[in-house]
Design the sequence.
């Protein structure tokens, strides 16, 4: 596997949980109506599933470094909307994902930009982990987001 491009993004209109128990909320916002989806969860799709897939594909990317001269590339697409937001209500929480999943702490129209900020932060953290990994192949994987 030479390249993986992950590009997930949904924005839903009312607070619900997915069957896995993760938030799928995104309140009405100034985006066009065609942007909204009613069946998927922004936290689950935009961040959790994206990084689960990235971690599940790491063994294939490592294998590529051993059998090819190609340096595999993992691209995690975020959004410039991540710059619209901060995660101030979650900074002091011991578990940010649990806090973001709490209906009482839900921040409506800020959810999509928050999940995209989370993507950016998780991509940076994954990059640090790859650089300091005990797997020499990890250092050959190009990561961008």
Sequence:
């Amino acid at each position: 596997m030479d390249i993986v491009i992950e590009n997930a993004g949904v924005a839903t209109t009312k607070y619900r949980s997915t069957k896995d128990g993760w938030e799928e909320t995104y309140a009405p916002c100034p985006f066009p109506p065609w942007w909204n989806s009613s069946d998927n969860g922004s936290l689950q799709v935009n961040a959790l599933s994206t990084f689960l897939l990235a971690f599940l594909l790491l063994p294939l990317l490592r294998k590529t470094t051993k059998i090819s001269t190609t340096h595999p590339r993992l691209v995690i697409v975020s959004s410039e909307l991540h710059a619209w937001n901060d995660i101030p209500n979650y900074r002091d929480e011991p578990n940010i994902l649990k806090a973001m999943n709490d209906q009482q702490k839900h921040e409506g129209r800020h959810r999509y930009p928050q999940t995209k900020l989370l993507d950016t932060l998780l991509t940076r953290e994954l990059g640090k982990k790859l650089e300091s990994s005990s797997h020499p192949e990890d250092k050959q994987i190009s990561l961008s987001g």
